[in-house]
User: Fold these one by one.
Assistant:
Number 1:
Amino acid sequence: MDTSSSLHLSWSGRPLSGSAQLPASKSESNRALIIQALAGGGQLHNLSDANDTELMQRLLAEPATADTLNAEDAGTVMRFLTAYLAITGRQVLLTGTARMRQRPIGVLVDALRQLGARIDYTEQAGFPPLQLQGRTPQPPAEEPVELRVRGDISSQYISALMMIGPQLPGGLRLRLLGKVGSRPYIRMTQSLMQHFGAQCRDLGEVVEVRPHAYQPADYTIEGDWSAASYWYAMVALAPAGSSIVLPGLRQYSWQGDQAIVGIMAQLGVVTEFGAEGVTLTQQAPALAVEQDFTHCPDLAQTVAVVAAATGVPLVLTGLESLRIKETDRIAALQIELAKFGGALLDEGDGRFRVPSAAFQVSGQSIDTYHDHRMAMAFAPLALRGPLTILAPAVVRKSYPQFWRELGTAGFTVTEQT
Ligand SMILES: O=C(O)C1=C[C@@H](OP(=O)(O)O)[C@@H](O)[C@H](O)C1
Ligand SMILES: C=C(OP(=O)(O)O)C(=O)O
């Protein structure tokens, strides 16, 4: 699909039913690929077909002589590869899209420099591109190096450092400073590292990694809970009597975005776990909802759109990291919600509010801002009226089959060039 095209979406008015295929988790996939490369083997099953994951695979397979690697718009690829390339002593320029060159990476580079890596900024200090100078970190062997790392910008720096910890002669101790966001992603890193034989403890303010080598292991990636959130939104917005089955999700997940189960229970969706995955059905929503997104930032757009469309007043906190993701997601939400009569109001002190307001879906065009989650969070509104999504190919970052799955579920999906 051409990035310049648009998609017209509409719905017949009957209840939603059947099942939908999810991609595999890109967060699990991209960690497993880095760890597999460091472990020197093991089989990974059900890897994501997301561009972020295919990109990670391609870049890891590049010959050591490659002089430039392009992480495109993939945060995990940029951050995890920076640490991986530093520990493996590669001399290479690591770059990304224009937006990636605005997403900060100074916290990670400072930490790697303290370990002895030589990394230079080629444009703006603190941001990609990075020139890695091929000097392997060589901290003293006797004891773990202790690094102080801010946790309030991105947890991806912490995950990146954790994953190279077993390769350091004395291991690594990370002292996390400030408010630590996206904590479940740190725990996911720990769980995957342990699965591959590493010794790693998350003690809250401190994360310890022992210098104990990874062992090759097999791992089957779970379905992606962030991607599941869009199907939750569809069930919340669909006509009465709707349901959907999502195979490939586990009841005991390593993904923090499983928080969507509890959040959507308040916005009218019941989750039932079975052997094959989950079944989503409808129930009456709560009168008002308050939700902290500090640890599940990728769910904020989905939930804001559902609240606006269903008229359930929503208070959102913990949105700090949204401004430095694929786009400024707060600004993008404000502009797009306004097209329907909705709003995301900044109340100060980190509180935002989606008020209950008249909300009408009647042929609006949604700008997607190079952000897959803008496209997927607004698409479910097509259940309430016709809608056009601009530059729909953005979904390839995490859920390339999203539009095909909407078609299978019964949406009329018409490409316009
Ligand atoms: O580690 C990961 O796989 C991710 C961590 C989160 O980022 P932050 O830690 O920057 O919030 C999340 O938003 C991103 O989609 C994936
Ligand atoms: C923020 C995201 O990804 P990343 O930071 O890995 O680019 C996302 O997928 O919503």
Number 2:
Amino acid sequence: MAILYQHEIEEQLRFIGKKANCPFISWSGEMDDVDPVYFFALGQACSFRERFYWSDRANGTVYVGLGCTYSIETEEKEQRFRIVETKWKKWMEQLAFDHHGTAATPILFGGFSFDPFKPRTEKWRAFPHAKMVVPTVLLSLKNGKATLTVTVPSMRYEESMEKIGLLLRLLSQEQKQPTASLPTLVKYEEAQKDEWIHAVEKTIRNIREGKFDKVVLAREARLSFADVIDPVVVLQQLREQQPFSYLFAFEQDGQCFIGASPEQLVKKEGDACYSICLAGSIRRGKTLQEDKQLGQWLMRDEKNLREHQFVVQMIKEAMGSVCKRVQIPASPQLLKLQHIQHLYTPVIGEKCHAASVLSIVEQMHPTPALGGTPREKAIKEIRETEPLDRGWYAAPIGWMDAEGNGEFAVAIRSGLFQGKEAFIFAGCGVVGDSDPMSEYEETKVKLTPMLSALGVERNE
Ligand SMILES: C=C(O[C@@H]1C=C(C(=O)O)C=C[C@H]1O)C(=O)O
Ligand SMILES: [Mg+2]
């Protein structure tokens, strides 16, 4: 199969540029199969300051982006989804591309903050309320095919081409799995544990007084390591340990937001649209029998079923508002992941008339799985009560293509990595009959996937 050469791509780009006279040009071509995490790792060797990773639950679509040719950022609070959508459409008009017989087109990849009205703290300074980017180099793996897409400004692409040339040379050599090892933990700290438990108690009282029905409260753990944490190692571990999750990474200037989330927010594919309701949790059992018993308990537990039902109700309505027909099973199933089991209800929307996946994201975020019910009151409670700046945690992360199709996951089971420091996050749905200590335990289980990816075991 095709080995790609720098001079050929350059020639093609020049040809596209001459023909179309557009500010941006893009070329796609088939390439040899490559391990996407290895590709991500090469990004650093080639001095790309931004790296992006996305793989869906079925591993059906994998995108790895290196470098940033165009970035849409906004600190606007109310209109952020629309602003991104409008700018993306405008930008597409300035782009000439030749996809060379492949199905690939440039995509926009990125994410959003959970709550633009919550004051931002220092650690999230590099993550605006919305940031979506067009990577300079994009690897797409779909239906067993690997495609490379190069997108550059037509007037100055020499600097990018140098990096791309190096990347192509490294790709043509034998693939060596990156050998970076797991970092050594020097400090583990659960931020404001007592304050968090008090917040849960207060929220339970407020729910019992009828102020709202459900509020999701989250907390963070801070970890310090002896060495700088390499996102490549974390991705490798997550890929092995969480095979049924979305895998994502958004890295810029050495700051990396990474996670393995089981929760789809929405996928739009033409006029079909998909979502899932995920809420209600219990740990995995230590034996097969215990695991089965815990699962059966979860399927019948009224508190968890109620937590779940709020999500079903809202997603059903949101999908109903953009689709002609919504298919949704009457009762939840069990979703068993490596460390946790959840109540799970898949949702399918037919004849979707939304303009783009982003306009559905706008309708859906935050669902009661991450925010609460009623939505506005719950968000206000989180803003005022939760001792945490969520940043991009629990918010939409994903991609969109030229036609407005795309997929977003909810960025849970995630962490922010800055040099030798990591912040990892977990939350839980608080309802009237929640017990604060059980909720605390539940968040502990939800921290496990990231801890385990970092090689940290905590048995207390
Ligand atoms: C908020 C998180 O998870 C969410 C809360 C759940 C619950 O409370 O049962 C279950 C799945 C997620 O929708 C998290 O993992 O941080
Ligand atoms: Mg729960």
Number 3:
Amino acid sequence: MENHQPIFELDSFSFSFDKHDEPSVNNVSCKLYAEEVTLLLGASGSGKSTLTLCLNGLYPEAVEGFTSGDLLYKGRNISSYPKGVINQEIGIVFQDPESQFCMVRVEDELAFVLENLSIPRCQMKQRIEHVLDIVGLSQYMKHNIHHLSGGQKQKVALASILLMDPQYLILDEPTANLDPISSLEFIETIIKIQKQQRFGLLVIEHEIDDWEPYAHRLVALNKKGEILLDSTPKEGFQNHLHKLTKNRIRVPKRYENRKMPSRPSSEKESTEVIVNLKDIQFNYKNKQILNELSFSIKKGDFCAIVGENGAGKSTLLQLIAKLIKPVSGSIDFLNTPLSNWHENELYKNMGYVFQNPEHQFINQTVYDEVCFGIKLSGYSTEETERMVHHLLTDFDLLSDKWKNPFSLSGGQKRRLSVATMLHSKPDLLLFDEPTFGQDAYTTSQFMRKVMHLNDKGATIVFVTHDMDLVDSYCNNVLVMQQGKIVYDGTPKALWRKTDLLERARLRIPYRLRLINEEMTI
Ligand SMILES: Nc1ncnc2c1ncn2[C@@H]1O[C@H](COP(=O)(O)OP(=O)(O)OP(=O)(O)O)[C@@H](O)[C@H]1O
Ligand SMILES: Nc1ncnc2c1ncn2[C@@H]1O[C@H](COP(=O)(O)OP(=O)(O)OP(=O)(O)O)[C@@H](O)[C@H]1O
């Protein structure tokens, strides 16, 4: 494919947010071609999102940033194109899809895109229905976007970009919030459309197993935002594995030599209940979200909540954290009804990390954000300093400590939101997708830290789409489907329930997929 004219040509291209800062994209020279599928890899904070925002012409203007070197689109400096042309030809689905929406309802958002493209009204309905069918959201056409689950929002963002018929499509962690089957279907769908419409595709993703078979190229960045590798995937993963993993880049598991920890479930035999839910019903307006939900979590459990997008996982977590109230039923925490807990006391005993980290930030700097909870807990200045330093080091945020939390990369924001919860030793820690958007190193650091807290007695409950984490760390797993718990037991027994897994849109972990593959050879 390299004999074609490149669609993008970067020559010693650099970008920085501030004149005095080190560039976030650093002296990058590479070419990207139409019809090619390229994986853009790099540790969290290595400049991947920033580079793609330069490619679609949003940066430097949008942030008053500074560039040097050349960035050509179809042979011409990108800044010489009218904005409308670039926006239409180069589609981008942002890491945080919420930042992308202009309208309230799904249908209106998509119609707005078509209006901007001057598509006649009579054609709109058909095109909107078609694109919603592609992303599997047909029944959500009339819904309020802000009332959709994280994964559903990501699908709306993709639908709106597909409507534009882009010549080049950039996807920034498109499957991070999707359930395992939706993720696989999404990749297959995108590749099918890419082959039909023959656009170039650039994908940023930390979990690349399912993309790898379709990729023609990989471009990897190091922590300084420089090109680390530019090769075919085969060449890169076979011959430069060490270089990639040393730079904290996740490689496909079949190339990896990583041993995931395996915690025998017999380690956990507590019978003492920490959270008990009985006959819970929860509605948003007239729509029933959770129904007749009864279960308990045992003290010391390391428990995952899994299930398809929109099943009600985040809603359940928010109920336990007393952020929302059930219509009927009761929730007890440490043998006391949640309604009797005073907020101050409750949150000394319970930590909660939101699905969207930005919902949590209240301070101007990373340092203050981490300090805030520690100071409230009454630690001395020296102790506070020491604890902040440890947390920032463990979460790879030390060099970002004076940054505004909102200016961090997606993965850094996620780590900060988690770090702010880990200073105290609450009885219960609730995490909503704590590891999404993390590279190999930061995921294992986080899990190690949480495992340590669990060993010291904290009960852990986390929502995740990562079955390998469930397999390696959890003694218990709850599977949700359409507002109900359809499984409550060990991960090991769950992996044998093929029908249930399929209905709940889950996949078995990689370890077992590998065994199954070997058995069929
Ligand atoms: N504020 C809201 N108003 C109305 N409906 C809502 C609201 N928030 C969520 N919902 C709906 O409740 C259902 C459950 O959403 P929830 O976020 O709990 O799902 P989830 O299992 O966490 O999904 P995901 O894996 O995609 O994050 C979804 O159908 C969603 O559309
Ligand atoms: N608006 C901003 N202002 C200042 N610095 C920023 C801004 N956005 C990003 N940065 C910094 O630029 C660097 C690169 O960020 P970027 O979002 O491009 O990383 P990334 O490789 O996409 O990371 P992740 O995998 O965590 O999403 C980070 O150090 C980040 O803190």
Number 4:
Amino acid sequence: MASSSSFLRSILFSSPTNFPSRSDSLSSFFPKNLTCSPPSTPSPLLSVSSIGSRSIRRVGDSRRKLSEARSMATTASQTGKEENKKRVEIFDTEENLAIDLAKYTADLSDKFCKERGAFTVVVSGGSLIKSLRKLVEVDSIDWSRWHFFWVDERVVPKHHEDSNYKLAYDNFLSKVPIPPGNVYAINDSLSAEAAADDYETCLKHLVKTNVLRVSNSTGFPKFDLMLLGMGPDGHVASLFPGHGLCSESKKWVTSITDSPKPPSERITFTFPVINSSAHVALVVCGSGKAEPVQMALNKTGSVPAGSVSAEEELVWFLDKPASSKL
Ligand SMILES: O=C(O)[C@H](O)[C@@H](O)[C@H](O)[C@H](O)COP(=O)(O)O
């Protein structure tokens, strides 16, 4: 039987193109810091006829659950606009979630690379990064057009265990050929406040050079895709429940020095930036997050994740345990 990676490659994505595996050392792959000078649709994911019958049933089960969750999410607040742009996908296993997330991201990459010759992608830290493991197996992605950002970063050196850069580098960036100049890490030699200002300056430069779009309706930068995790307290990025930064309405990037989740010093995108994204995927797994998921989706409580929206589409990717209270 084929390994899961060749299995994915052969049945899910038909492009024969292979990209070279990355051999750059960590230090040579460090991006320019933020005085930056930035520089075929895959076949359907669960090509069900090619996958074992147990997986097909799981997908079917997931889809039924999905429609239930969709109607719950919709009836919870009868509003039109934001709710209509929201989808909830529930997967039997985190493995199936990771496969679908890869397909979702690859499709958007294809669309934006064709439409505008670039794909601006933002990631959080945390367990999300592990769920991107199937994405590195997609041969059809034009990585050269990717521009890679962090929605939040801990203010620590890039080689530090707490660094979101290091987490993404070790588990994702080191495995795909995104040009190093298109990877926008924070300047880790600055204070939190200065690093946030520096990152915002970088984003403004990328707007000027047309790498990054601006939302016509909000005037904030419009990333093509944000891939976000959610903490067990319902935080997203470094926007924590009850923290004043959740209502920041002017800055693009801001700093926090009293983060309840260590380390205390971080920079983070603000809600207006997150919510001006074209697409947002909120990826949440595990029963420990079932309650904030319920609070956010059924509007039974107030958690930062419940304030996330997107200009085109917000998709919640949940595994069964995370959806158990819906
Ligand atoms: O740097 C961080 O702390 C993150 O960017 C943060 O927003 C993370 O995504 C959530 O805390 C979820 O993390 P887990 O999935 O590991 O719970």
